[in-house]
Write a structure and sequence with these properties.
Blueprint (H helix, E strand, L loop, with lengths): L1 E12 L9 E4 L5 E6 L2 E6 L5 E6 L2 H7 L2 E6 L5 E6 L3 E9 L24 H4 L5 E5 L3 E2 L4 E6 L3 E6 L3 E6 L8 E4 L5 E2 L18 E7 L4 E6 L4 E6 L8 E5 L6 E7 L4 E6 L4 E6 L6 E7 L16 E6 L5 E6 L4 E5 L4 E4 L3 H4 L12 E6 L5 E6 L1 H7 L10 E13 L14 E3 L3 E4 L41 H5 L5 E4 L2 H7 L4 E4 L5 E5 L5 E4 L4 E3 L4 H5 L1 E10 L2 E8 L4 E8 L9 E6 L3 E7 L2 E6 L3 E10 L6 E11 L10 E7 L20 E6 L2 E6 L17 E4 L4 E3 L9 H4 L2 E4 L5 E6 L15 E6 L4 E6 L4 E10 L14 H4 L2 E10 L1 H10 L3 H10 L6 H17 L10 H8 L5 H10 L6 H8 L2 H10 L3 H14 L2 H18 L2 H16 L21 H4 L9 H6 L14 H11 L4 H19 L3 H11 ...
Parallel strand pairs: 15-19
Antiparallel strand pairs: 1-30, 2-3, 3-4, 4-5, 6-7, 7-8, 8-9, 8-10, 11-12, 12-13, 13-14, 16-17, 17-18, 18-19, 20-21, 21-22, 22-23, 24-25, 25-26, 26-27, 28-29, 29-30, 30-31, 31-32, 32-33, 34-35, 35-36, 36-37, 38-39, 39-40, 40-41, 42-43, 43-44, 44-45, 46-47, 47-48, 48-49, 50-51, 51-52, 52-53, ...
Length: about 1450
């Protein structure tokens, strides 16, 4: 409603005076302020806030009249009455300045657009020069206690118990004095009821205020009693009648709210009592109280002292209160608390020390409520003066100005403002609309450094786009900052203050109206439109508000030239000019305006309502609008005073139909008029009982729907899926929270029960002040004040604090709140579960629906479980049953339980069911994360054995489903149960995406040895039972930790389950899952495989295993290209040329050359003469030809390392590292631009390119290749040779097959393994011949090895075969710490990050190696190279 912004301003007084001001009184329009000190009357102007004139009493007159006490303005601002201490009333004439018309004039820089010479333009911006002339004083012969200005009279109460009625002119001696003793007081105006008459002898009126809409005076007597005095005739005469409030004797001050007909009294207890006057009996009824609650202000709620002042804002929507002990507090009209300066940052410094609250001697609201003028007490003024070195000719006036921004609903409650939060300050607008990424930094929206919430709404990184008209949930919720629009300064200077503001339904256009004319702004273009002709602007003033309709601004205004009230429609897209407007003349002043679909509703000063229809026409170059009067409805019987109507709304909401029985065309018709009459919500429905005349039906008598209503929200949209929310009426009721008038629908279109109401009013509390309702999204939007303390920036100066130190910097934050759970609960309380289910199902798709369910359970649980009294009809079982209707039942219960203290769990699970049963339901539903949360519940509520049993179930299921994150938590959980360390329960696991390498973190931290070192070559002995290196990275830490207490029974139990799962995976040929399982859980895969080498790690069916791998790793079965026999790459020379071109494309310090210094001596020797490629063949001095031949088979492997993306990180370039395998293996994922030049130089033929594409098609994904190479390495280290053969087949690595065949010669290899590999390869060969011919070229290439297997018998193998000359093709012993083991390059060893052998390029039909290829390969330094 109203929100503080920034710091208060302190006004400077140009006159030197020893006297401090103590009283401020605004004129009726609040453009002038009378400020009193003891002998001085000053008049200040509002904008700019400057001193205009000051009247200083002479010493002689001052001694005669006494010091000044209070002041009162005449209604037309032409006179001021001042009460002096000795019983005198001093009347001053406020006279214009004559020739010196203007005291202050604006100074413009050259070329400024403000220098336009327009009539009345300059004058409006200047403070007028006024003078004060004192007239004859009036002596009332008794101290004056209070004054009240009436239209022609001045009412003065004196301490002798008299009420004086003076004429303002003072010339005619029309003084009347009424003794308070002659006024009869009773409890109500029906004297027949014999109300007590007060004994008023010696009693006088301490404070009084006149209420226009009640036509009477609210008074506080000096003994603390409260009363209301009404004149029995039209004019104040001796015939007065009083009523008094029962049981109150501590009244201190009074203020009245004319719009809501409320009388507010401050009390010595510190609370404010708000009374209404009963219209039938005339008695005073206590409506509500405004008081600080112990809940929010435990320190100060009883220490405020008596209420000192109450001031209603100009629009009567909020009241400001201050107490004897200081402080300010703001309440809405029906008691919603908005701001208090007695707590939080207002009351405490940043170091925690308490501040003294600001003590206020007088305050009043400025024009339109944008400022609060506050005069602090003398001690306060001394405390905060001299915050800066003021110029010697000025001094502090002791006047503070607090800045406020307010909701557009306070003065212009139109429908288009209802789904957007629109706030306006005196020179800017705050909006919640627009795309959050479209914050602009244009000049028209430059953020003010002292007014914005911190966070910088004017960030230059955001730019709006013209087509951003949608209002999504993310737009309205997901952004904390405001869109701040600066009101155009040209319009503001001549038309301040802004009185009305409206925003269109799309949130893209805003219109504002000040004193004269109006202007509008477009969010997409970031431009204002002002009247081109300033005379047109100055000749109209907006009276009844403005609203957007269909691209038009609809304005109810007064035309000064024709002296005529008009309804105008201006087209937004055209220039702002009367020639582009549609004008309809009205017969009476318009007070309120609203739009429903294509209808306008006006409320007029004669208490009548007019309905107009609007039609948009396209009959000219610009669209136009025609307006036609439909109906007039007189409301004078029901409305005592036109100023009491707060809002008027046209709506399709009605009561008498069965709602579902509405005809479709009637569902969105204007069925009802809803009036907010002084907080009473009145509905007039169309009377459809008579003849059905289109749009001209009479209205039924009014029905009161609700009391204490501040705002109303309804919508004209329709949505069959969310009819409950869209056809409801939403009310804001101040302290009572909100209410919703909800329709009740029969289910499945059954006929409604006659005894069931069609609608129900449901109240609910919310924690924010509602400013907008998002109907479909079940959300309320609002705003709240936040504070930032800056007192640490400026230390105390000579014991005094600056304003920045005294007050925190105030910002306004956007807030929102869900209300759906409140409504569902209210429906369940009223046994309307079917309606609650319909409503909930319509909202189940909302992103925060699970949160709604949790909130409902949580609120009911907290209330019932902590209740001291037994609850006869508990709601929790009903809520639990209700939630079971939704699939998120299990999550809701467990999340609610984990957010609730343990003491309430028994009560919760007694209602919702046993947690063991709920756990099992989660397992059956495969919802493992929720089951893990239930495990924590069970761990706290059951014995450890039960927890272990359920944890084992969950662990096995998580292993089966590959939920590795959950598995890690479960391992920790099971270990903690065993060791009794369960002080901190494990967190609810969150599912994480595996990393880009498929989760092989284990692999990243291993050193894979790729070539034999000199030591291993010298040893000449291959040992399958060798030790293996364990990972040293993060994944290994868990296993190291386990090994420390491996004797623990829990660890053995966990290891047993892990081994069992690994066995299960290997039995079912799920190698990919086995690799992930090992990497994610740190399982010692190689050691386990060594143990299982002759058991589960055997391969029974090679063909089935090969098929499974293809499916598991998404690896395509190879296809034979049509031209495989006559492939262009069969010619070794062409391959050599291609190889050399590609090698030249790399610089000398390319990817892998940086590691050459650690190569073995033989490799280094050859590297000095030839390319790096030569070094791969330099491993053994013996059999160089054989090695080169082998290399020629694997030649394409080396080539792809060169085509990988170029990197400068040499530490990532070790072939022995995992990163090499992941980052430099595939051209497919790399950057093709590296070799564009080379390809153009090679001038490949069509058939060659076709062959290359076939090679790429035969390869699987890059990630799968990395994973398969890792598994090949693992199986090789573990000695599982059958699996090595299978993976070698799928990768089509001839070197792997040759290596395994060589290993099979070892006497340590069991005969069964040799037989298995032999039969497996024969089986694959047979299968490939019939089902998968793509494998035939590769099988032909490895035919010599297959032949060797068939021919060789185990008995013929001698140990002499394993001499150093042959050992270069066997896997070396890894040597930790030896660089040669990692960095020397072996061509045929495993894990090398090189591409695969193309299936069709190297084999001939008879399976042998072509002769020309062998000869080409023998030449030193020439190697084949194929693109892959």
């Amino acid at each position: 409603m109203y929100f503080l912004t920034g710091w208060p301003r302190r006004l400077l007084c140009p006159l030197k005076s020893e006297e401090e001001p103590f009283h401020v009184q605004p004129s009726s329009q609040r453009f002038y302020f009378a400020v009193l000190s003891e002998t001085q009357l000053s008049v200040w102007f509002s904008r700019p806030s400057v001193l205009i004139v000051s009247y200083i009493e002479s010493a002689k007159a001052s001694s005669q009249f006494g010091f000044y006490q209070q002041a009162e303005w005449k209604q037309d601002d032409s006179m001021i009455a001042v009460a002096a201490a000795n019983g005198y009333i001093l009347l001053f004439d406020v006279v214009g300045g004559g020739e010196d018309k203007y005291l202050y004039e604006p100074v413009y820089s050259k070329g400024s657009r403000g220098v336009k010479v327009t009539p009345g333009y300059k004058e409006e911006q200047c403070a007028p020069a006024l003078s004060l002339e004192m007239k004859r004083p009036i002596d009332l012969e008794a101290p004056i206690t209070s004054m009240q200005s009436l239209q022609e009279d001045l009412l003065v109460s004196t301490a002798d118990g008299y009420l004086h009625i003076l004429h303002w002119d003072g010339v005619s001696n029309g003084r009347k004095a009424i003794s308070l003793c002659s006024v009869p007081f009773s409890l109500d105006l029906q004297s027949a009821r014999g109300g007590l008459c007060l004994d008023l002898k010696g009693v006088y009126i301490r404070d009084m205020t006149y209420c226009v809409t009640l036509d009477g005076f609210a008074v506080v007597l000096d003994d603390g009693r409260l009363g209301f005095i009404t004149p029995l005739a039209n004019r104040i005469t001796a015939d007065l009648q009083g009523v008094w409030a029962a049981d109150v004797t501590d009244g201190t001050c009074v203020a009245v709210n004319n719009k809501y007909r409320l009388v507010t009294f401050g009390c010595a207890s510190g609370s404010v009592l708000v009374y209404s006057i009963d219209t039938t009996t005339g008695s005073m009824q206590l409506s509500h109280k405004l008081e600080l609650t112990p809940k929010h202000y435990p320190d100060v709620c009883n220490k405020t002292g008596a209420v000192k002042l109450i001031r209603w804002s100009p629009d009567y929507s909020v009241a400001m209160v201050t107490w004897e002990c200081g402080g300010l507090s703001l309440w809405s009209v029906f008691g919603a608390h908005l701001i208090c300066t007695l707590g939080e940052d207002f009351a405490y410094r940043s170091d925690g020390t308490k501040k003294d609250p600001i003590n206020i001697s007088s305050m009043c609201w400025g024009a339109e409520g944008y400022h609060l003028w506050v005069i602090t007490s003398r001690e306060e003024a001394e405390l905060v003066e001299n915050m800066e070195e003021a110029p010697p000719q000025t001094q502090q006036a002791g006047i503070l100005q607090f800045n406020f921004i307010k909701s557009a609903l306070t003065v212009n409650p139109c429908t288009s403002n209802q789904e957007q939060v629109l706030l306006h300050g005196e020179d800017r607008l705050y909006l919640t609309c627009g795309d959050p990424t479209q914050l602009s930094s244009g000049s028209s929206e430059s953020p003010h450094p002292h007014k914005l919430p911190h966070g910088g709404e004017g960030s230059p990184t955001h730019h709006p786009s013209p087509n951003s008209t949608s209002q999504g949930l993310s737009t309205l919720l997901g952004y904390k900052h405001w869109h701040v629009v600066q009101i155009h300064s040209t319009y503001l200077e001549s038309n301040w203050p802004i009185r009305f503001a409206a925003i269109d339904t799309a949130g893209q256009c805003i219109a504002v109206a000040g004193r004269r004319g109006f202007a509008h702004y477009c969010m997409s273009t970031r431009k204002w439109k002002l009247f081109g002709n300033i005379t047109q602007e100055q000749n109209m003033t907006v009276t009844g508000g403005l609203v957007w309709w269909n691209g038009f601004v609809v304005v109810a205004c007064y035309n000064f030239i024709d002296r005529q009230e008009e309804l105008r429609l201006y087209l937004r897209s055209s220039n702002l000019d009367n020639t582009f407007s549609s004008v309809t003349k009205l017969h009476s002043d318009t007070l309120l305006l609203n739009v429903f679909r294509d209808m306008i509703i006006l409320f007029r000063a004669d208490c009548s309502i007019c309905l107009y229809s609007m039609e948009r026409r396209h009959d000219g170059p610009n669209p136009s609008a025609s307006v036609e009067l439909l109906q007039e409805v007189s409301m004078s019987r029901y409305i005592p005073h036109p100023a009491l109507v707060v809002s008027v709304t046209l709506t399709s909401v009605r009561t008498e139909t069965g709602i579902t029985l509405k005809a479709p065309q009637q569902a969105c018709m204007a069925d009802s008029i809803i009036l907010n009459l002084a907080g009473q919500l009145i509905m007039l429905q169309r009377d459809r009982s008579g003849p059905q005349l289109q749009e001209k039906l009479p209205f039924c008598p009014p029905v009161v729907l609700a009391q204490y209503v501040e705002n109303v929200w309804t919508t004209c949209r329709s949505n069959r899926k969310k009819r409950h929310l869209l056809e409801a009426l939403w009310l804001s009721c101040g302290e009572a929270g909100m209410k919703v008038w909800l329709p009740l629908f029969p289910r499945d279109h059954r006929k409604p029960h006659s005894f069931l109401s069609r609608r129900i009013m449901l109240p609910f509390h919310i924690n924010i002040y509602p400013l907008a309702v998002l109907f479909e999204d079940a959300l309320v939007l609002g705003a709240s004040n936040e504070t930032v303390v800056y007192d640490s920036l400026q230390g105390p100066r000579e014991g005094r604090e600056s304003l920045e130190g005294l007050f925190p910097y105030c910002t306004v934050e956007r807030t929102s709140q869900i209300y759906l759970h409140h409504i569902l609960r209210q429906l369940l309380v009223r046994n309307l579960g079917e309606q609650a289910l319909l409503l909930a199902q319509s909202c189940a798709a909302l992103p925060y629906f699970p949160h709604v369910m949790e909130l409902m359970v949580h609120v009911v649980l907290e209330e019932e479980a902590t209740s001291r009294e037994p609850i006869p009809d508990p709601l929790l079982p009903t809520v639990a049953k209700f939630i079971t209707e939704f699939p998120l039942f299990l999550q809701t219960i467990v999340h609610c339980a984990r957010k609730t203290e343990f003491a309430l769990w028994n009560y919760l699970f007694a209602a919702v069911g046993n947690p063991k049963d709920l756990f099992e339901e989660c397992l059956m539903a495969q919802d493992l994360d929720t089951a893990a949360s239930y495990l924590i519940i069970l761990q706290n509520m059951e014995v450890p054995a039960v927890s272990r049993q359920h944890a084992t179930l969950l662990f096995n299921t998580a292993l089966e489903q590959g939920k590795w994150d959950l598995c890690r938590h479960m391992i920790r959980f099971l270990k903690a149960i065993g060791s009794g360390e369960m002080e901190t329960p494990p967190p609810t696991p969150t599912t994480q995406e595996p990393s880009s390498t498929g989760g092989f973190e284990f692999f990243r931290n291993r050193s894979i040895s790729l070539s034999p070192s000199a030591d291993s070559i010298a040893a000449g002995k291959f040992n399958l039972q060798k030790t293996f290196s364990m990972p040293s990275g993060p994944s290994a830490k868990g296993s190291e930790r386990w090994s420390k207490d491996s004797d623990c029974a829990e660890n053995m139990y966990i290891d047993m389950m892990l081994r069992r799962h690994a066995r299960h995976l290997l039995e079912h040929v799920r190698l990919k899952e086995l690799g992930c399982f090992s990497a994610q859980l740190g399982f010692e895969l190689i050691g386990w495989l060594c143990h299982e080498r002759t058991r589960v790690a055997r391969v029974d069916d090679f063909v089935m295993a090969l098929k499974c791998l293809h499916k598991d790793f998404l690896w395509p079965f190879p296809v034979t290209p049509a031209g495989s026999i006559s492939s262009p790459f069969k010619n070794g020379h062409r391959r050599t040329v291609l190889s050399q071109h590609l090698l030249k494309s790399q610089s000398a310090d390319s990817l892998l050359n940086s590691d050459m210094d650690t190569a073995p001596p033989q490799a280094a020797a050859r590297n000095s003469n030839h390319t790096w490629l030569d070094g791969l063949g330099a491993l053994g001095p013996t059999e160089p030809t054989e090695m080169d031949t082998a290399l020629s088979h694997g030649g394409p492997q080396t080539q792809e390392a060169f085509l990988s993306p170029l990197t400068n990180k040499t530490e990532e370039c070790s072939i022995g590292s995992a990163t090499d395998l992941t980052e430099t293996s595939s051209m497919v994922d790399g950057d093709w631009t590296m070799v564009d030049e080379n390809f153009s130089a090679l001038s490949l033929t069509h058939s060659e390119l076709e062959h290359i594409s076939m090679e790429l098609a035969n390869k699987g994904p890059h990630k799968s290749q990395v994973q398969l190479r890792y598994l090949l390495h693992v199986f090789m280290e573990a000695g599982c040779l059958e699996w090595c053969v299978v993976i070698g087949l799928i990768l089509r690595e001839a070197t792997v097959i040759k290596q395994v065949v060589n290993f099979l010669d070892s006497p340590e290899v069991p005969h069964e393994t040799v037989q298995s590999v032999r039969s497996g390869l024969l089986g694959v060969d047979a299968w490939a011949s019939t089902d998968c011919l793509g494998y035939k070229p590769f099988l032909n290439m490895i035919r010599p090895q297959l032949q060797k297997l068939i021919e060789t018998s185990v008995e013929q193998i001698q140990p002499e075969a394993f001499l150093p000359g042959a050992s270069n093709s066997k896997l070396a012993e890894p040597q930790p710490g030896g660089p040669s083991a990692e960095d020397s390059r072996g061509p045929a060893l495993l894990g090398l990050a090189l591409p695969l052998e193309p299936p069709g390029g190297l084999g001939t039909e008879d399976g042998g190696v072509p002769e020309e290829q062998e000869e080409q390969a023998v030449d030193e330094g020439v190697y084949d190279c194929t693109l892959s």
